[in-house]
Design a protein that fits this description.
The protein has about 220 residues and is an alpha+beta fold. Helices cover about 35% and strands about 30% of the residues. Helix 1 runs parallel beside helix 3 and helix 2 packs antiparallel against helix 3. The longest helix has about 40 residues.
Length: about 220
């Protein structure tokens, strides 16, 4: 009599725990730096756990998918925070240089310039292309850290948002392939491509992010 093989649920459970903890820490400035390894490992373990479930050797595919989703959102938040701190450092450095040259300093982050009355809102378009569906698509909605997510989204996927000129101008979109093949992402701002990337393979993850200031 053969013993029944026990389900190998360790990867999926680990991915969920790491993704959840990483997502919680990702929203905390400074301290959130520890979220980077958590969400990256959570994404890896979640994908491995989901693959096991697909092969029938694990029984917690739902938990693994949740870990992937949480990790993806946390990773987007981490990237946006890193871009925000980089932008703040650049602004401080530029202001110091302008003060040394006797020029007026640039306005604070998030504040429109004095002569910005005629500035038009930016139109941002997120695109994810591929065959079939994406397990999840996560994108920022406010030029900073607010995110929305579409699960089990049919491809091609397009989402357009409009931001006022005084808003932060950092954008990010990530997606995970629901099967095999190539999945691609693209960010277009006011008709000009800001960032595009592709990934190939089973349950592969693709990410596009960019800062209009450093465009």
């Amino acid at each position: 009599m053969h013993a029944v093989a026990q389900p190998r649920n360790g990867f999926g459970t680990t991915g969920f725990v790491l993704g959840l903890v990483g997502l919680i820490f990702s929203f905390i400035p400074i301290i959130g730096v520890i979220a980077w390894p958590l969400v990256i490992l959570g994404l890896i373990f979640g994908i491995l756990g989901f693959n096991r479930a697909r092969k029938g050797v694990a029984t917690n595919s739902g938990l693994a998918i949740t870990g992937i989703v949480l990790s993806a959102i946390g990773l987007v938040v981490c990237i946006v925070w890193a871009a925000a701190f980089g932008k703040a450092a650049d602004d401080i450095n530029r202001n110091m240089q302008q003060l040394e040259q006797g020029k007026p300093a640039a306005p604070p982050i998030g504040e429109a310039p004095a002569d910005n009355s005629s500035a038009q809102p930016r139109t941002v378009v997120y695109e994810v292309t591929g065959s079939g569906k994406a397990l999840n698509i996560t994108y920022t909605t406010d030029g900073m850290t607010s995110v929305e997510q579409q699960q089990d989204a049919a491809l091609p996927f397009t989402k357009e948002i409009s931001l006022p000129p005084e808003a932060f101008q950092m954008f990010s979109v990530s997606a995970q392939n629901a099967g095999n093949g190539t999945i691609s992402c693209k960010i277009t701002v006011d008709g000009k491509v800001l960032k595009e990337a592709s990934s190939n393979g089973q349950y592969s993850v693709v990410m596009c992010n960019g800062d209009v200031k450093n465009w």
